[in-house]
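Because discrete structure vocabularies remain unfamiliar, it helps to consider an illustrative case, giving the amino acid sequence and backbone structure tokens:
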Amino acid sequence: MTGTLSTPGSGGQRSDQAITEGKLKGGEISFAVSREFQGNQITTKYNGKISRDTIKGKIGTEQNGHALSRDWEAKRVPEQLSGEEQALWEWLSRVSRFNPRSP
């Protein structure tokens, strides 16, 4: 699975990060997103369970040598998509979207 994660950036600009390590098997989804913050490369790993039009799961990252985890939830966005896009999801906790695509 490939795709992008779009998040609000500074000055209202959207920031798109490529999804890596994407897996979709049965109702389980997992992927990673890497971004640079203050000169450091930060990788965040997402996993979740898809149930109809909702994904619920955990986000994990590491900060100062400590593992951090929090819940996340996304809803499928009902809108017209281009031919390559399989689905568009919107996080409920913030205005972020991710668009996974199967290879």
User: Anything to note?
Assistant: The longest strand covers residues 14-25. Residues 2-101 form one domain. The chain has one domain: 2-101. The chain has a mean pLDDT of 79.
